[in-house]
Amino acid sequence: MGSGSGCQLARTGQEIIATSPLKQHKAMDRHANMGELIGKGTLTQTRITLAELLRNHPSSEKIFELVQQLEQEQPADLSDQLDQLTGTWELRWSSSSQPWLKQSPGLLNLQILDPDQGRGRNILQLGGPLGQFAGIQVDADISVASQQRVNVCFKRGGWAGPSIAGRKLQLLRSIEQSFPAWLDITVLDDALRICRGNAGTIFALLKRPDIHLPDWTQ
């Protein structure tokens, strides 16, 4: 991917980032206990309904209304929720009209966020077994700027393939970002994230603790 493709993703405000092994373990524990949390009333019914729609009916017209409701009633605060931001997230809905930014059965659109390491990554690949051979990857540096804003600086992007004999096959080029990019994290918990990119696009994502975080040294 050249700089043009990277900037295209930058305008949507998408990133993917990872976390430390300890925080990854904590995130997986929280996900495993989600049923218990719901039973205790820790999560509101609105969040539960939205998460179920994103998981099972991502094209539902009710999603936009629920997203707006949660943004107003339960805004995120990264000064107290930063550990919940860390992990691998799957895009399930967006307000964009671009096909690569909307949920599709044939595409897997992931975001990895690792604020402790200041790293992020976007991954777009085909669904199914062929996905590991046909993927686009964009790496970024990220930093928390306020209670909701995460600044993004895209660094490199291109083709990323499978790992063979412990070595990751990839062909990445540097990206020269000529404009500021950011994500405003408007709603956040252990399973759900809603955010707005610098272009105003709204994204709704679900956490994927089953997908291992990358080795940033590769």
What does this structure look like?
This protein is of the alpha+beta class. 28% of the residues lie in helices and 36% in strands. The protein contains 6 helices and 9 strands; from the N terminus they run ααααααβββββββββ. The protein has helices spanning 3-12, 21-32, 34-39, 45-56, 62-73, 78-85, and strands spanning 87-94, 107-114, 119-126, 135-144, 149-164, 167-174, 181-188, 192-197, 202-207. Strands 1-2-3-4-5-7-8-9 form an 8-stranded antiparallel beta barrel, surrounded by 5 helices. Helix 4 (45-56) runs antiparallel to helix 5 (62-73). Residues 1-34 and 36-42 have low confidence and may be disordered.
Concise synopsis of the structure shown:
With 218 residues, the chain is an alpha+beta fold.
* Major beta sheet, strand line-up: 1-2-3-4-5-7-8-9
**Unreliable segments of 5+ consecutive residues:** 1-34, 36-42
Radius of gyration: 16 Å
- Main sheet specs: 8 strands, antiparallel, barrel
- Measured distance between first and last alpha carbons: 18 Å
Strand content: 35-45%
Helix count equals 6
Supply the helix-strand structural class.
alpha+beta
Helix-strand sequence? HHHHHHEEEEEEEEE
* Secondary structure tally: strands: 9
- Secondary structure: helix percent: 25-40%
Summed over residues and divided by their number, the pLDDT gives a mean of 79
Q: Tell me, briefly, the overall form.
A: globular
